[in-house]
Write a structure and sequence with these properties.
By secondary structure, the chain is α+β, with helices and mostly antiparallel strands. It has nine helices and 19 strands. The strands form three sheets. Strands 1, 2, 9, 10, 11, 12, 18 and 19 form an eight-stranded mixed beta sheet that branches. The site of flavin-adenine dinucleotide (FAD) has 40 residues, from helix 1, strand 2, strand 13, strand 17 and helix 9.
Length: 377
């Protein structure tokens, strides 16, 4: 569906209206670059952005870079409504990490990292963990850590908030149109071939999330994106775990849960996939039930209301790929945001917009370390 007559030239075309593309459009408009088209093959948020666990969590970061970026993004989310003019529906619920003996060294590393960045962390013994979750089995746990500032966002409020303000400034959104190639001339991008014809642009931003490798190939680049499927299950109303309890991450076991409305949301899976339309929730269900009921025996009484599978576009070093492609002028990457794209969207859009406007990142000048060149490509 198109909301504007299709104009076939723009300064910038952004491929992908997930949270990263929407944020990029918003920050471009903030920097005065408004001749921008956001191109989306389906619907806003129909990719990974509509399938996340919706957490904004400094606690989830495992490295210095991610934590620096998220501290910036977190501050922007706290003023989202003032800045963007729409709410992002942040709800502070806190984040509780738990670890058994095998996971404890990893959690200890994370605690040191959070403390080094000034994030207040409460270090917990197994008994103290039960203060937050009396229903939890803790006799086989060694360590816990709680941070209070983490919480949930509404990804659709974030995407539409960014888009609304960007469109007020002139940015266009084209939905239901798929990019199928790039037009390149003498090492420079000229525009995008689409199912609605050729659209010229001086700059093309690859914000295609899990589809980014396909878009990269049109530019002759093999992007090191590792697409990994993760499933989410939501239980029917479950009064035994009251709303308001923190998110729980079982370190080293790759599963987590948090209250979601009257039920519980449970996430699990790091499954390599070469197709993006997979549904693994039935396949992973028995393993999930075994792990979840072990930790929270009361879950034996739960029933699953709904489930879905989403794709996390990871990279070999766990960091995003942001910036130019040396072999093709006018082609910019904002990809590989893995399991943190929602929480990092403000800084992702801001830095990409700075690359377009100034040719380099301004807010974090050393973010050039996130460019594709670090992989020797
Ligand atoms: C189960 C799960 C849980 C997660 N939990 C969290 C969490 O709690 N917190 C967090 O911060 N992150 C989380 N994530 C990660 C987060 O969802 C992603 O990092 C983020 O959504 C990536 O956004 P994106 O805009 O790059 O990709 P997407 O949202 O996938 O957007 C890319 C868009 O590009 C479009 N597109 C692709 N190819 C084309 C084309 N050729 N032409 C036109 N359009 C195209 C797609 O249709 C899509 O809409 C989770 C992910 C999953 C799967």
């Amino acid at each position: 569906m198109t909301e504007h007559a299709i104009r076939n030239t723009s300064d910038v075309i952004i491929i992908g209206a997930g949270v990263i593309g929407c944020s990029t459009a918003y920050y471009l408009a903030q920097l005065g670059i408004t001749d921008v088209m956001v191109l989306e093959q389906e619907e806003v948020g129909s990719g990974s952005s509509g399938k996340s666990a919706a957490m904004l969590s400094p606690h989830s970061c495992d490295d210095d870079w991610s934590l620096r970026l998220i501290r910036h993004s977190y501050a922007r989310y706290m003023q989202f409504e003032d800045e963007v003019g729409a709410p992002c529906d942040f709800r502070r619920i806190g984040w509780l990490s738990i670890a058994d003996a095998a996971g404890a060294p990893e959690l200890e590393r994370k605690i040191r990292l959070l403390q080094a960045h000034g994030v207040p962390v409460e270090v917990l013994s197994p008994d103290e963990i039960r203060r937050y979750y009396p229903e939890m089995r803790t006799d086989d746990l060694t360590l816990g850590a709680y941070t209070a500032e983490d919480g949930t966002l509404d990804p659709h409020s974030v995407m539409w908030g960014y888009l609304k303000r960007a469109r007020e400034k002139g940015v266009r959104l084209l939905r239901g149109v798929r990019a199928v190639g790039l037009r390149v001339r003498r090492g420079r991008v000229e525009g995008v071939e689409t199912t609605a014809g050729f659209l010229a642009a001086r700059t093309v931003v690859n914000a295609a999330g899990p589809w980014a490798p396909e878009v990269g190939r049109w530019a002759g680049v093999e992007l090191p994106i590792l697409n990994r499927a993760r499933c989410i299950w939501v239980t029917a109303p479950f009064p035994f775990i009251p709303f308001g309890r923190p998110f729980v991450d079982d370190v080293g076991r790759e599963w987590y849960f948090r209250p979601e409305g009257p039920g519980l949301l449970i996430g699990m899976g790091v499954v390599p996939v070469d197709r993006l339309d997979v549904d693994l929730s039935g396949q992973l269900l028995p393993e999930m039930i075994e792990i979840a009921v072990h930790r929270l025996p009361v879950l034996e009484r739960a029933s699953i209301l709904t489930s879905w599978t989403g794709i996390r576009p990871l990279t070999p070093d766990g960091l995003p790929i942001l910036g130019p492609v040396p072999s093709l002028d006018g082609f910019l990457l904002n990809v590989g945001w893995g399991g943190m794209g929602l929480m990092q969207a403000p800084v992702a859009g801001l830095l990409a917009a700075e690359y377009v406007a100034f040719g380099r990142p301004i807010t974090f000048p050393d973010a050039t370390a996130l460019e594709l060149a670090r992989f020797g490509i």
